């Protein structure tokens, strides 16, 4: 299984994390790690997420960037790792 690290820039809204997680699940990815922090003095939220799947991460990135409150999605790096279910 491939692991992918994403950096997501979004508006700081109560429902934005729920929308992101729903898209991740619907696209067949599993969340392995999640770190979320508001950016100082802005209405922005920075989300660092590690996801795992056999599917191409580009498809997930495109779908996440279409969400209403998501300003940008960047694929940080990709690594191949064995993940035990």
Automatic annotation (TrEMBL):
InterPro entries: ACT-like_dom_sf
Pfam family, one: ACT_5
Record Gene3D superfamilies: 3.30.70.260
Name of the protein: Acetolactate synthase small subunit
